[in-house]
Amino acid sequence: MRAELELCETYRIPHSHFLGGDGRWSELDRAKALAWQARQRSLCPDCRTREAEWQDDRHAYVTDTVRCPGCELIAQERDRVPEGRAGYGIKVTLLPRRTYEHLHRGDDT
């Protein structure tokens, strides 16, 4: 249900429409959307857990370490961004190699 409501939020459609309905917002759709919004607001913006999940079990979650090659590459490129005004507004993103090569054909930078 969480995955369904997340998708409905993304596409801004009622849950009944996702399930094959006519697209009109029913009372149940509105109740689900408000409950989903309340749940989302109760999540910590950093770790995405809820306070209630920790109240009964202070060990409800454990940490895990993973290495993402994409994030590693972004972090390495960020080290090359100049500090101060010269680096203002610079965003480091990932592009598929073919897309990058298409965008930078003939570009010497």
Describe the protein.
The chain has 109 residues and is an all-alpha fold. It has helices at residues 2-11, 15-18, 27-41, 51-55, 69-78, 97-103. The longest helix has 15 residues, at 27-41. The protein starts with a helix and ends in a 6-residue tail after the last helix. The model has no long low-confidence stretch (mean pLDDT 94).
Quick recap of the structure?
47% of the residues lie in helices and 0% in strands.
Indicate the proportion of strand residues. under 5%
Question: Percent helix among the residues?
Answer: 40-55%
Question: What's the β-strand tally?
Answer: 0
Give average pLDDT, whole number.
Answer: 94
- Tertiary shape: extended
Radius of gyration: 21 Å
In whole angstroms, the N-to-C terminal distance is 48 Å
Topology:
Elements lengths: L1 H10 L3 H4 L8 H15 L9 H5 L13 H10 L18 H7 L6
Keywords:
109 residues; 0% strand; single chain; mainly alpha
